[in-house]
UniProtKB/TrEMBL annotation:
It comes from the Bacteria. GO terms for molecular function: hydrolase activity. CDD domains: AmyAc_OligoGlu_TS. It holds the Pfam family Alpha-amylase. Coiled coil: none annotated. SMART domains: Aamy. This is Glycoside hydrolase family 13 protein. Residues 15-403 form the Glycosyl hydrolase family 13 catalytic domain. Keywords: Hydrolase. Belongs to the glycosyl hydrolase 13 family.
Amino acid sequence: MTDKTGWWRSAAIYQVYIRSFADGNGDGIGDLAGVRARLDHLAQLGIDAIWFTPWYPSPMDDGGYDVADFRDIEPLFGTLAEAEELLAEAHARNIRVIIDIVPNHCSDEHRWFQAALAAGPGSPERQRFWFRPGRGPDGAEPPNNWKSRFGGPAWTRVPDGEWFLHLYSSRQPDFNWENPDIRQEFEDVLRFWFDRGVDGFRIDVADGLVKDPRLPDVEDGDETPFSDMEGLHEIYRSWRKIADSYAGERVLVGEMWLPDMSRAARYLRRDELHSAFNFDFLVCPWDAGRFRDVITRTLLAHDEVGAPAAWVLSNHDVTRHVTRYGRQGDTGFSFANRLHELPVDRELGTRRARAAALLTLALPGGLYVYQGEELGLWEIQDIPDELRQDPVWARTNGTDPGRDGCRVPIPWSGDEPPFGFGTGDAWLPQPAAWSAYTASAEAADPTSMLSLYRDGLRIREEQAALGAGTLEWLSLGDGVLAFTRDPGFTFVLNFSASPVPLPPGEVLLASGPVTDTLPTDTAVWLRS
């Protein structure tokens, strides 16, 4: 049974990418009205909270992660009053709400950046960002060799000759967290939304706010000068004090792509963040030994700081796991190469995704479900070039297909696009094959992915062994991942090429048909 005294320790949290969830006004873009109309889907799914990607005013250069105003709602999505109504309606269904906060950067349309451009070199306004003169005799070279994570240089020159830093798009200038204005601003933003009833924040680029003020060159992709800097801990301790000052266990969740899990766990000490995404688990290829290693290291690192793990299979930035697990070759994930050229066996990927769902639901801690994951949706890799909108595509001159393929609007009902997403054409094209993957069709099929998620989340809530806690590994042979959880729960996933004997116990749930043996790429929950 999930831990109700510390809800975030074992919560099942559903990620809503607003533009692609549901369109309430017929303009082809998801909005708050669409979310409100589909809240019952989420309640019936059995999730504990929703995490919303940014809903703030934005020119949408980076899908809303280029924020122009942190205290309002993007007009394409609705109004601040609608957001407050959505909060009340979600809470009435016992669903908490977490929203994105983007403290590393803002939009170039943000009032502070516009003021910085107008004020000129040396001004207090420019001290809120990283403006620097260029190198070389005429300052025509960037201040250092840092590269944007979206491709190309991390610096852009303005007409007066100075350069500004942007670790992402050139329309996303980085804040200078050495400046007290930035620290005060974001503390005020936290209070603004906590006062309106949000239950927590997911912190975008949580590892990247603080930079080495020397701005040194880096070699061989070393991100030390702008990632995982010691000054971050002071910031998050101050944020934790604010969260703890509100009733109802408000939470802070970090997005940190760090190579060392023990370093990431340092942010989860009791006076800092509550939890962070486990990206080592997300990128893990389909292999029993690799999964066991990741799970073991995750639990150990989190136990050392008294924090829960947070398991995740997909999100709005990565290739959907039905596609990854169905590849004929590398089944992991890397931003360096999205492997769109590899053949994909979708039937295989779906079978493995079903088994992976039961794995995440059975592990100690919390989990995240990315919208459409519960329908078994796959990555759309054949979006026409002229329709792609991700700045990654443009900044890499098409060498990186970007993230549009996991952001295609999800299907709700009907036999043809837009599949109940709205009344008009969706902002990205949906494949005709999704007619069999609508929420309506799957709700009527007890063998569907949606039914599996509903059953899994319901049983997870009912079983005292599941949610927060510990596990003990079982040895059932090569290629078999198995563990027990007290009281009386056994999990088995067969990665091997042949069926394996099923341990004794009552079958609570299985990802596919089972008899006295467990087929390849199939998982089962047993009660002893």
